[in-house]
Amino acid sequence: MLLLLSLLSTLGLAAPQLGTSPWGPNVSSTMLRFGCHQLVIDRIDPLVNPGSLPSPHLHQIVGGNAFDISMPHNTDISSLANCTTCSYSEDLSNYWTANLYFRARNGSYKRVPQIPNRLLFGDDFTTKTDGGFVVYYVSGGIGDVTAFRPGFRMLVGDAGRREPQGLRNQTCFRCYTGPDFGGDDKAPCVDDAVDFEGLPNKMCWGIRSNVLYPTCWDGKNLDSPDHKSHVAYPVETGPHTFTGLGTGGQCPESHPVRIPQLMLEIVWDTSLFNDPDEWPEDGSQPFVLSTGDTTGYGQHGDYVFGWKGDSLQRAMDGVCFGANCHVLESQSLEEAKRCSVSSRVGEEVDGWLDTLPGNPDIREKK
């Protein structure tokens, strides 16, 4: 319960009274937190590299089965999908990020497995997924945000970045100290002592990556050439906004429409690679994103909206909490696992590899 109260305070949400359900009537804001099983791991990117087979680097994808080499613009994606890997069956959106690989001292690579997240707010689905990650949507209450429209898509981060930009409040990494998710008693990306803009340079039981999307929209464009310019982060932040951003803070005049705070949370089991004899002799960290990034500064997340009808708006106005929203339809993990798409590239991505898939340029951390 202490973790719950601490997280609620950081998120700026009203805490439920002791003894009540954390998603009960005493909650004044919405924070959806739900797991999504792996849909596919593949080297395609319908947002940044539409039509390219393959795209430059590998991604891990969750969500609806409309995911493909290209996804048509200005189209209701939910009408093209008939299943999703997420616990909320009305969410047919797609979310994808880079994979993480371990580079052994001999120069070979092995993909680091994504593992289920911790049990929180009674969400058993999220603790049993095979791969995949956790998705958050946050609003400040009824009428606080305008849900995304069909055809909406956006990108946060830059796959080519290799230098720090002071953007820890957009993407960050946390080092877990043990199998009990030790060190996970604070909300993401708010504490310099535990969260890092780059990959942690020490042995961890697991590494958690958080990707936080902008919360202001220009109200007109569903996309932009860079997939970023139609959205923006707030120009002001307060002490009780989600990770200092969230749905709080003043939106710029150019982007006056407040949209839900979307966040992705990925956990990798790095404990499998904690043999010091396999780490670089100079003591540097051995993990590399599938973009060829040894720094972590290039972590990024892609999003294509695909909620059915007005379901997301209902959820944002429904003072829901966690993975048990009374206005949304849920599905079992078994149903979610039956949803998948075939790999379009069909290359080997697991086991020990001589090069990363696509053989991206490895540029060392300076």
Task: Estimate percent helicity.
Answer: under 10%
| Strand content range | 15-25%
| Integer-rounded radius of gyration | 19 Å
Provide a count of the helices: 3
How many β-strand runs? 18
Enumerate the spans where pLDDT stays under 50 for 5 or more consecutive residues.
1-6, 8-27, 238-245
Query: How are the strands ordered across the major sheet?
Result: 10-9-11-15-7-1-18
Give the SSE string.
HEEEEEEEEEEEEEEEEEHEH
How many domain modules? 1
The span between the termini is 42 Å
Helix/strand structural class? mainly beta
Specify the overall morphology: globular
Largest sheet: 7 strands, mixed
Average pLDDT metric:
87
Description:
It is a single chain. By secondary structure, the protein is mostly beta strands. It has one domain. The protein is 6% helix and 22% strand. The chain has three helices and 18 strands. The radius of gyration is 19 Å and the shape is globular. The model is unreliable at 1-6, 8-27 and 238-245 (pLDDT under 50).
